[in-house]
Amino acid sequence: MTLMLSVPLTLSNFSCYSPVCIDSSHFIMSLAAEAFVSQIAEDQILLSDCASSLAVQAYLRMCNLPVQVSYRPNAEYMSPSGKVPFVHVGNQVVSELGPIVQFTKAKGHSLSDGLDDVQRAEMKAYMELVNNMLLTAELYIQWCDDNTAAEISRPRYSSPYSWPLNHILAYQKQWEVRRKMTAVGWAGKNLEQVYEDVSQCCQALSQRLGTQPYFFNKQPTELDALVFGHLFTILTTRLTSDELSEKVKSYSNLLAFCRRIEQSYFEDSQAGSSSRGYSKGPSLF
Amino acid sequence: TVTEPAQILNYLRKLRFNADYELSARQGADTMAYIALLEEKLRPALLHTFWVDTENYSSLTRPWFASRSPFPLNFLVPGHHANTALSRILLTKSDSPLHTITEVEGKIYSEAKECLNLLSHRLGTAYYFFGNTPCSLDAFVFGFLAPLHKASLPSSPLQNHLRQLENLQRFCDHILNAHFSSHPGSPQPVQETVDANLQKLTQLVNKESNLIEKMDDNLRSSPQHKPFRADPRPSPSNSTGSTPA
After folding, report:
1. What sequence ranges are listed for the domain Mitochondrial outer membrane transport complex Sam37/metaxin N-terminal (chain A) (predicted)?
2. B125 touches chain A (CB under 8 A)
């Protein structure tokens, strides 16, 4: 069943796909509250995909575009680039935040029009920082750390499939991610160094944000959506240890930033969502 | 031993060598962000230009590296680098494991050109990225751009694109002149002295051979001596030359 998060406007509808088991109606995989522990075996989505997915949703909401999230176990294979999330509009399919931003810009919705060239360069640089550090760290923790991989990532990733496909797919995905980590030079790092990198990245983001409500002027841009997606997911996801979320929590302006975006853009869905919708999900309050 | 640029910088910072001392917190954050941008957008295209593009690799990069490595490493090391570069590009940039390098080329080059444009916009008319003194971001950008600027690549759309961005070229040249030209081991002045010496030697040899030719003509034209083989002997002080008995 799909989670209806759409806000009815006259603009075209966007359908957003994330790889969650088709039985689940939970958007966030997080297990922060006790009541959702029983969902572990059924939910498929992992931290990194959830973060990217949330970033795209935040961006689309910031553009005031109605978005419908639906879950498919084979979303990775449906996507044109092999990565989730992807957006299905009419007869076009666009995946990943970068191309989605360009796509919406071509349709006339853009959040970064007001920026001058230097600011746009900064924005792109910070987006790359988040991708380079936070996303890679998330992937590392999920798949290269043996504890997390065995207890959380592999069971979740393979949950919709039966034996032996679940083993094959989970190990294949793990092998792929480890190869990628080797290629970018993260394979030699240990967990402490990864946490340190996350901390430095959060420090940079915190210093850039300062006391402003958003990263640029008073209006959110795609950078805000991306940072929100990653930080919120990190904060509300329970892994084998809490150290990752503790690193983020130590920066209070980032916490306030996440709360602010959650309040502004995700609270209005409470009226229209189903009973097990987002409003019952974990929040920062 | 310390490897990797980031670790080397950390090591130097612990020894109290820090070019970023004057930067504000926000500028430090900007530094991290721009370095991430370079790594993500520019490095794949640079790797491709130097290591994967067959013309560049075979005519410039491979001979360059091979000339500095002893046997048998000169066969193994460049090939290993090239394979690492190719796998890195394919793993991080291609959308599917079945794609080949040609399909990814367009994407990485357009991203790299955009990255160069962004750097150019950020630099503007200044000499360095932050204020009047160089910092670690300047070092990183220089490290990425200087080979592209100076290497004589037979085919490189990226180099052509860089030629259109004058402020980045000026940035590279400025750092080269300010920090690399007074290096004692730099090849530039050595080359000049070698050339000058070579020139003087050539002139001396020419003078001597002229003298010897004159001597030879004199001897030939004098009738009491048998003509002998005109061997140019390198001893002009002996004016009569040695004649066979």
Report:
1. 53-174
2. no
